[in-house]
Specification:
The structure is a homodimer of 347-residue chains. Chain A is an alpha/beta fold. Chain A is 46% helix and 15% strand. Chain A is built from 14 helices and 12 strands. Chain A has helices at residues 5-12, 16-24, 31-44, 50-57, 73-86, 102-114, 130-137, 161-174, 190-207, 223-235, 250-262, 280-283, 296-312, 339-346, and strands spanning 62-67, 92-97, 120-122, 142-145, 155-159, 180-183, 213-216, 244-247, 272-277, 290-293, 320-323, 326-328. Chain A has a 6-stranded parallel sheet with strand order 2-1-3-4-5-11, sandwiched between helices. Chain A has a 6-stranded mixed sheet with strand order 7-6-8-9-10-12, sandwiched between helices. The first copy, chain A, is elongated, with a radius of gyration of 26 Å. Residues 337-347 of chain A have low confidence and may be disordered. At the A-B interface, helix 4, helix 5, strand 2, helix 6 and helix 11 of A face helix 4, helix 5, strand 2, helix 6 and helix 11 of B. Chain A binds a DNA duplex (30 and 30 nucleotides) through residues 4-6, 14-21, 23-24, 28-30, 33, 48-58.
DNA sequence: CCTCCGTTATGAAACGATTCAGACGACTTG
DNA sequence: CAAGTCGTCTGAATCGTTTCATAACGGAGG
């Protein structure tokens, strides 16, 4: 129904080749002809058919971005970073939400493959899907976002999560906490495991006690998951109950905070909380959240840069970039009493 | 580079037509042939080229979703609702962020037109872009989201924002507030104007005083905008300073809350706040936010349903759906002292 | 044995753009 | 004046798929 290049050519009284030239290499066509063609285009409301272009060109002008949870502001910030790079390059982004479910992820990757996207940016679920490899074998670049590359033959932009976990834990340990909870997730994401590892190492070094760390793994890394974990913590006998928690992301931390408040547990006096990601809402929380800050937008834009470079071909070298997180201390971890004394008294 | 249907045909020793049949109408090809073809497909890692399909079919398998602010959880919730409908239909969503800027919106609409999307879901900027009409003239369905249709010849899914504004204002008026601020935005979005109208009507009815409502319009409907507005309110002389605010969305409300707390203004004792949208973070705020709740995901999924129906053609009737908002009362508006007395004392 | 029919497979024509070898004048140049 | 050059335009081939008219084959019915 919509006008094609042939209709334009007919109306302007030129060949289709000439119309194409007006569109793509205007300098090779005479001014007079160019104007006639442009007039015809305007009159017919002609819009290029991207699929036809793509078919001929062999590559599309889109990239795919697959995230774990579109409702998590961390990922929308990443998406923004991606957009900042991809938009000026004239590419469109197909944003897919895997919901941390491998089947959804695979389905989305299949669609992206059919769309012949120029490349895929993805924060994958725990297991690296075979679909990812098959994309790469097919020559479609894949850049991992917020996840380390398992092999050096691909690009990845990650954060040193062991360090992040350590920063969070050391902060709590310094403030005297001796029984700490790590609230992760059931899906086994390596980012979460690394954060856990960092926390565990710091706790072990400081306490020499492997039981000092309680690990909870709610189903999902969401506010609801955090509430669930907090309820379990509150249910523990006082002697074994942790006095602080490091959460694998801010959504969890927010959930923990909500449930603690609801149960009448004071934060940070009775229970300290450290989140992860430092999303904007962390600072606005009921009790402003101490959190491990990651360069969210930079993660996205750097990943996009690497992807575009790889898609361009010509001597691309794979880069595994690792950003350093920092700790942002806010009220949720500002305990006032000395917990070391507390604990020693209890023993 | 990637295997084409022709390669598959060759390897399986059949014609391309047969391969296509295996893919699209497997029942018409004999089991033996089908297996051979399927084997070849697996061996070559063949993946359909969606652009070629689309070119032949005349329509793509994607839709566009254009939102005002991807960082606003309201829109990610809408996107989720859209996904719930669009995904099972086997379509992909191209998510675009206009940042409330008409030029970005237009640019995105152009890209979507070139992609020949099946339809566009959009929360448009204040002025309805001519690009929207030109899409519709070209036969691409457009459904407005969270925005009323200007004419009955198109679908729209909106919320009764006059009512929403009224609910918010009446709640504050009942609690004794007599000087109220409406914090909107500078970009003139009709949703915001309607909320304003609802608030203004309620305030006028209750106070008979047109000056009882102070209108502030920060640049953007964001947390930063809210902080900016709050700072201006605090700067006002006490006699003219409002005692409460209705904010055009929750991001603004969160910003107002932050700045008030920072300036030592107690919420809700000294200043009450009502937000709009009821995003999840509203309940988790420093002071849990009273907010006007909209059916966020339903807005998206209903809009997507209408879009798919319209794209299907065949006797589609345009629907303008208007959801009713409800007020969710939380702490941010729970004032304790009687402000009527307060005000009367002041006069 | 012939005809007819149903099942299955074929091959060519589209879809809309880009590209490229070549045509055609008009001009230079030796 | 012939040959070469330049600027401009043409037309056909091509990308990968779907579709559709048609062919090939085998079996049933007369």
């Amino acid at each position: 129904m919509p006008a094609s290049i042939r209709d334009v050519a007919e109306r302007a009284g030129v060949s289709v080749g000439t119309v194409s030239n007006v569109l793509n290499r205007p300098e090779v066509v005479s001014e007079h002809t160019r104007e006639r063609v442009l007039d015809a285009i305007a009159a017919l409301g002609f819009v290029r058919n991207e699929s036809a272009r793509h078919l001929r060109a062999g590559h599309s002008r889109t990239i795919g971005l697959v995230v774990l949870d579109i409702a998590n502001p961390f990922f929308t910030d990443v998406a923004r970073g991606v957009d900042d790079v991809v938009d000026p390059a004239g590419l469109a982004v197909i944003l897919c939400n895997s919901d941390d479910r491998p089947e959804k992820e695979s389905a989305h990757l299949d669609v992206l493959a059919e769309q012949r996207v120029q490349g895929v940016l993805i924060t994958p679920t725990a297991e690296l899907s075979p679909h990812l490899d098959s994309l790469r074998r097919r020559g479609i670049p894949v850049v991992l976002v917020d996840r380390r590359a398992p092999t050096p033959d691909q690009c990845a932009v990650a954060v040193d999560d062991v360090l992040g976990g350590r920063l969070a834990a050391e902060h709590l340990l310094e403030r005297g906490h001796r029984r700490i909870a790590f609230i992760g997730g059931a899906s086994g994401l390596p980012q979460v495991q690394e954060r856990h590892a960092g926390v565990a190492a710091a706790v072990r070094e400081a306490t020499g006690d492997d039981d000092a760390l309680l690990v909870l793994s709610p189903e999902h890394l969401t506010v609801a998951g955090g509430r669930e974990a907090a309820a379990r913590i509150v249910g523990l006998p006082a002697a074994r109950r942790p006095t602080a928690a490091v959460c694998a992301n801010d959504l969890l931390a927010l959930g923990v905070l909500q449930e603690m408040v609801r149960q009448g547990v004071r934060v940070p006096e009775d229970f300290a909380i450290v989140g992860y990601d430092d999303i904007d809402f962390a600072a606005a929380a009921a009790v402003p959240l101490t959190s491990v800050r990651k360069p969210r937008a930079a993660l996205g834009s750097r990943a996009a840069e690497l992807l575009l470079d790889e898609a361009r071909g010509e001597g691309h070298v794979h880069v595994q970039e690792v950003f350093e997180p920092t700790l942002v201390v806010r009220e949720s971890s500002m305990a006032f009493r000395d917990r070391t004394a507390d604990r020693e008294g209890a023993q």
